[in-house]
Amino acid sequence: MKSESSSTLHPSNLHRTGYDFSVLVQAYPTLSQYVRTNAYGDDSIDFANPQAVKALNQALLKQYYGVAVWDIPKNYLCPPIPGRADYVHYLADLLAESGTNQLVRMLDIGTGANLVYPLIASHAYGWQCVGVDIDAKALRNAQQIIETNGLQQQISLRQQANPESIFKGVILPGEQFTVTLCNPPFHASAAEAQAGTQRKWRGLGKRPPQALNFGGQSNELFCEGGEAAFLTTMISESRQFAKQCVWFTTLVSKATNLPLVYRELKKVQARTVKTVEMAQGQKQSRFVAWSFQSGLFKKHI
């Protein structure tokens, strides 16, 4: 039986009609131990159980994205696949509309141990992907996913040696990318990240734990100055690589940060700016894309 539909997802999103747990359990039998009938009579899992969420991801990646083996270390971020896929599909629309969808090279800033964006993008669109992270352990796990699934020709990894930098040191001289994507850390401190985690648990009707059990290392969840500071640095650095990348993009989780983003983009004289709204159920999100190339879209901020 399928779970409740997520009709607000992108039309190309394979999870738009909900999860078909009979199909997913067949693909990944371990998932069966976590499937229960919810109050609405639909098959579901306990989304407050990290092991159940990981098993769901393993099933989704195997069934829909050709990833036979996927795992993450304990306490690393286990992202929701449908939302991650939406970002990739809307990026594909952006590239198609701007005529930049041939031989795509994608740079994933903060790819994490899960490697989800490159896994989806390489399978769904055949993009060449480079994943970047500052966390050596995360990159070792991501590399194991690549090698175990024979994806060395599609996906490669780089470590950012300087935690203060985003593009510097990972975009090589003369190298060209079609698009960058990023899901920035959006908390400003460990305490703020903890409060956000506890809100998630309460939203699921569970008692909040004392630890960050929803998953995520410090660099995945927070940075000094929070999302606003991270975005400011990213936009400032992007100007230095204006000729090496067609589109720079990033999720902006807090709508209140959009005015800041637009001001910073004016400062660096981005020629083209586009904000793409997305939704997953009741959750609203968006990414901002900008380019220093002319003639892609009429500038609007």
- Count of all domains: 1
Mean pLDDT: 87
Mind telling me the CATH superfamily name?
Answer: Vaccinia Virus protein VP39
General form: globular
Tell me the strand order in the biggest sheet: 5-4-3-6-7-9-8
CATH topology: Rossmann fold
Which regions are unreliable across 5 or more consecutive residues at pLDDT < 50? 187-204, 209-214, 216-223
Compute the CA-based radius of gyration. Answer: 19 Å
CATH classification class? Alpha Beta
Structural class: alpha/beta
Determine the N-to-C terminus distance.
Answer: 44 Å
Known CATH architecture: 3-Layer(aba) Sandwich
Determine the fraction of residues in helical runs and give it as a percent range. Answer: 25-40%
What fraction of the residues are assigned to beta strands by DSSP? 15-25%
For the secondary structure, the number of strands is 9
Helix and strand element order: HEEHHEHEHEEHHHEHEE
Helical element count?
9
Biggest beta sheet attributes: 7 strands, mixed
InterPro entries: METTL16/RlmF, rRNA_lsu_MeTfrase_F, SAM-dependent_MTases_sf
Enzyme class: transferase
Keywords: Cytoplasm, Methyltransferase, rRNA processing, S-adenosyl-L-methionine, Transferase
Subcellular location: Cytoplasm
Describe the structure.
This protein has one domain: Vaccinia Virus protein VP39 (Rossmann fold). The strands form 2 sheets. It has a 7-stranded mixed β-sheet, sandwiched between helices. A two-stranded antiparallel ribbon has the order 1-2. Helices cover 35% and strands 17% of the residues. It is an alpha/beta fold and 301 residues long. Helix 8 runs parallel beside helix 9. Residues 187-204, 209-214 and 216-223 have low confidence and may be disordered. It contains 9 helices and 9 strands. A hairpin with a 2-residue loop joins strand 8 and strand 9. The termini are far apart. It is globular and about 55 Å long. It has helices at residues 21-27, 50-65, 81-97, 116-125, 136-148, 190-203, 218-221, 226-238, 258-267; strands at 36-37, 43-44, 105-109, 128-133, 155-159, 177-182, 245-251, 272-280, 283-291. This is Ribosomal RNA large subunit methyltransferase F. It catalyses: adenosine(1618) in 23S rRNA + S-adenosyl-L-methionine = N(6)-methyladenosine(1618) in 23S rRNA + S-adenosyl-L-homocysteine + H(+). One of its GO terms (cellular component) is cytoplasm.
